[in-house]
UniProtKB/TrEMBL annotation:
Residues 26-174 form the Laminin G domain. The keyword Transmembrane applies. Gene3D superfamilies: 2.60.120.200. It holds the Pfam family Laminin_G_2. PROSITE patterns: LAM_G_DOMAIN (PS50025). Signal peptide: none annotated. This is Laminin G domain-containing protein. One of its GO terms (cellular component) is membrane. The chain crosses the membrane at residues 12-32. Keywords: Membrane, Transmembrane, Transmembrane helix.
Amino acid sequence: MRRKFDDTGQWFTIACFSIFFSLVDSIILTGAPDSYARYPKWAHSFENSLSMELKTRQSDGMLLYTDDGGTHGNFYSLTVVEGHIQLDFRLGDNSNEFGQRRPVNTIRIEEVRIDDDKWHTLTIFQSWENVKLELDYTLVFKILNQRSFVFGNILKNSDVFIGGLPPLLPCLKI
């Protein structure tokens, strides 16, 4: 059963958030600094997929964040920037030949604006060196030129945060 929620302006709504095939009906976030939802750790493997439906009127904001708890400095940060979806991420470990500073990769979908108060379907897919971001049938992908695609350690990875971050994320017991 799907509940109906009315968006009253500054609210941000995400529905059908799925990790590991589990579905959450719907959440509404107010956009306040302490407004976020926290979900269990995302157990990364060689093939990873995350899908959600969302609608917003916001032109800038945090959609999703998770990291490896400082193991390798890896993370996924999915944001709305100037009305467009942007995924910033880092994967791998020091076996890649990038030196001390491993790059942050960015994928941005310019063709579709999401701050139109309409429902949009978003999927992140990562398999080895292939990372894809799909929004309403618009697909953008990046092929990583590296040897390692490890994300972290399930015992140390952060939880998955939706809509924002707690103020003391590094201090949270993970």
